Amino acid sequence: MTESPRTRQTRPVSASTPGKIRETSAPQVRPATEGWTQKKDAEGRPLLQFASPRRGKPPVHFADFTPAERIEKVKELGLPGFRAKQLATHYFTHYTSDPAEMTDLPAARREELVTTLMPPLLTEVRRLETDRGDTIKFLWRLHDGALVESVLMRYPGRITLCVSSQAGCGMNCPFCATGQAGLTRNMSTAEILDQIVRANRLIAEGGLGDPRKVGHEGERVTNIVFMGMGEPLANYMRVMDAVRTMVAPQPEGLGMSARGITVSTVGLVPAIRKLSDENIPVTFALSLHAPDDQLRDELIPVNSRWKVDEALDAAREYFEKTGRRVSIEYALIKDMNDHAWRADLLAEKLNARGRGWVHVNPIPLNPTPGSIWTSSEKDVQDEFVRRLNDAGIPTTLRDTRGKEIDGACGQLVATSEDEAAAAAMA
Ligand code: SF4
């Protein structure tokens, strides 16, 4: 375990917070990895991997195609184009790729159609349940042995799935389990979508929560958060193709509302700009975690490319172009980024870009005794939230459901046990 590098830091008290002496003498814990060594580039900075390493491509699947391409594929197999819609209905509405259930397709061709167009993408390795079955973490093995996870959560009035967009991650954040091994590869569009289809199938079978509760019939995933493994904007094209299919009406897609889909990023500015121009009003979340470059350079290595102000400018632009209020994600880490002056600085930077365009979601971490990555004290959390709210920034502490099974943001990583379970199945 890495020793906590605690240093004292004295910062001038902000003009808006006179008399708050406590914050100026609060310790400053600096980010550092614990139990692993961050890969570095030639200049000694944390290595950033944007390009997916070359590996065998995942099998091409029906869900990788647009509706027009699906018709072409079906025709290539010598069948009339309307069969594509039937296949889409089975996959996106009935959540099945079992030929035996596709009784409206010619019996002699069903197997062939499914083998050719719907090869298996995700093999379930492990399933962990918590919250009396209302939260389920899935561990999936991809065709090449890469492991990814998704977490399904039932809340009152909505069902959220946290999906992965890459196997591993190249952003190398020192607090994040997923980033430790670097980027294995980008996931395909269909691999991203299949996480939702598989979750919907489980819900339809009554597998989420107490099946005796009323209201399960017709339930499905209503909200998607791209906060599983990977940096979604580093796999931009496939993620956006997946989003387009999520929002496409059934049966051509999953018929979801764009507003229920949250695309989050650590701040890949050119990709945020591109997202603003897509004309798909998804919810956009910027994982900021620090308002000052000095800390953020260490906490989020991609900050060495695009600084706090650039990321905030791009986030503001997202609001201007889409009219969608932006979320700022901020994990509150004891004595690292939870100082009152940082709440004030964050409020100042957000207000400098206008009012009503943003809200802040501080995320309380779990207490981790002996680690530098531990939760802020309750009163510090409350003070942080109060200062932002007082400055006119709507701020709400986020629910961190799924922590119990290591399924919260930045925590998704295959353990050696998971790998052993996957190997045993291979
Ligand atoms: S926190 Fe997110 S961006 Fe950073 S390494 Fe982990 S998965 Fe990647």
Descriptive report:
The protein is of the alpha/beta class. The chain folds into two domains: 62-117, DNA polymerase, domain 1 (Orthogonal Bundle), CATH 1.10.150; 120-425, TIM Barrel (Alpha-Beta Barrel), CATH 3.20.20. It has helices at 21-24, 67-76, 82-93, 107-117, 189-204, 236-247, 269-276, 293-299, 308-322, 340-351, 378-390, 416-425; strands at residues 6-8, 27-29, 123-130, 135-141, 147-155, 158-162, 166-168, 183-186, 223-226, 261-265, 283-287, 326-332, 358-364. It has a nine-stranded mixed beta sheet with strand order 3-4-5-6-9-10-11-12-13, sandwiched between helices. It has a two-stranded antiparallel sheet with strand order 1-2. Iron/sulfur cluster (SF4) binds at residues 169, 171-173, 176, 178-179, 230-231, 266, 410.
Provide keyphrases for this structure.
binds iron/sulfur cluster; 31% helix; 2 domains; DNA polymerase, domain 1; 12 helices; 426 residues; 16% strand; TIM Barrel
